[in-house]
Amino acid sequence: MLIEAVYHRPKLNWGYPYDLKTIHLRLRTKKQDVKEVWALAGDKYMWEKSKERVQMHVFATDDWFDYWECEVVPPFRRIKYGFLLKNDDEEIWMDEDKFGKEEPKMDRLFDIPFINPVDVFTPPAWVKDAVFYQIFPERFANGDPSINPKDTLAWGEKPEWFNFFGGDLQGIIDHLDHLTDLGINAIYMTPIFKATTNHKYDTEDYMELDPHFGDKETLKKLITTCHDKGIRVMFDAVFNHSGKTFAPFVDVQEKGEQSKYKDWFHVRKFPLAVEDGIPTYDTFDFEPLMPKLNTENPEVKEYLLNVAKYWVEEFGIDGWRLDVADEVDHHFWREFRQTVKSINPDVYILGEIWHESSPWLQGDQFDAVMNYPFKNAVTDFFVEDTTDALTFAHAIGTQMSRYPRQVTEVSFNLLDSHDTARALTLAKGNKDRLKLAVTFQMTYSGTPCIYYGDEFGMEGDNDPDCRRCMVWDEKDQDLELFAFYQQLIALRKQYPALRQGTFKFLHAKEGNNGLIYERSDDKDTFVIAMNSSSEPVTVSIDVKTTQWENMLDHTTLQVENGRLEEQLPAFAFVILKAVQS
Predict the structure, then answer these.
(1) Which domains does the chain have, with CATH numbers?
(2) Is residue 323 flagged as an active site residue?
(3) Residues 62, 202, 204, 352: which is the catalytic one?
(4) How confident is the model over 220-258, as pLDDT tens digits?
């Protein structure tokens, strides 16, 4: 065994309470280097009487490592533990300090001292069952032309960074039946607070709606109507930076060092200016219109936390999506979580982070982040055809290994957004490739999100082209694709195994685009086989069940000799459910 590759540490994603009675233990080994791993676990105050060996299984694999996992249900919410690693000719014990040939003494083992309820990371349960729909309000629907911005363009003209089309809250209300028909039960709206741009990420007033979107009564009507239809509502907020018309920043612009708000921002040099393209104050990117807020300033902190409280208390929103979340200090986010969760523990806190996000996902800050590594892996394999099945499986395995399971279960799994080119455009208009990506999205762990219009086959390159006006004219809608989305969403909502069950890859080979994976719970088992190539492929696996139902056409497949074999045409897939005998 390559001992140098073996890794474990308590806490984080390696040893943690999944709930009040269950502890998950994980261990990393060199890929295909170890045949068996057992956890030795017991209560430190009654070690000899309580200790047991629990077999671990490989739950994820990447290019270099296997990741092992097991569940332990300790009798008194605490455990000491170590690991026994085996292959054909070796047995090695691992404790907190060393590797050895003998079973370690209890006082040398790893320790999870106690499962304190307050320390258990418990994201809102409803998120695991949610199918989100992202709305860019300015481009979704114009329901009240009387509040249109000046120089509003005709619906459907070419989007630019600074033009307006009159989308508003009433337009969303008018089309909620479209969302319920699709199967949506949660919406995420990009910012609706008062701002100067069409995207509203340059906030002028965090306590007021943008008048071009409507008033607070219209907002209350939207949220109430959504809740009546079983749709949760998540707002988008920018606490990293404000807009140039934010009153405190205007005061600093006017009064310089004499402004009482000068410490609300990160000013390097007065007067405020832009020198060689770089502002003399910190901003988002180098955008002078978006000055960075000093969230360590007590007055700024109080103001923003009051904003977070106000919209939850007064309007009953169900979630906060937090823009540029990784550039704000961790201490602020901890206070933010405490503030919001004290009002409603079921509010979903979602950070916009594009990379590995463990520091924010320990239960003291966010419930989840926007899962761009998932999007990248799906795009590379299904959409743009730049990787093979094995590389894809490894990318997903890496992501699964990074976080506690309860984080994976509520990760925000998107294929595109207002910040990226649309998936169908990246697929060069190949609808079959998009369908494969959507199928994986809807049958994978986590919370899927559909970007408005994808269900009708909307296209668009990078911003601003990805922010085109929603297509409401039926002749411009791909109704066959809409029906496909409906079918996959309905299937996901019908079977908990596709949302919360275990996930594992069964077939993924180098240089091949055939893929098989399994979703299962204590009631149902699904096998999904996919071909992400322009040529037919044959995929096969060993199975114990002899009869399977094709969930797309409800035909029955009989398996002989314990071998499930599927011949898949180009870009084809099947979703099979085991028929219980």
Answers:
(1) 3-118 (2.60.40.10), 131-243+290-494 (3.20.20.80), 244-289 (3.90.400.10), 500-578 (2.60.40.1180)
(2) yes
(3) 352
(4) 999 999 999 999 999 999 999 999 999 999 999 999 999
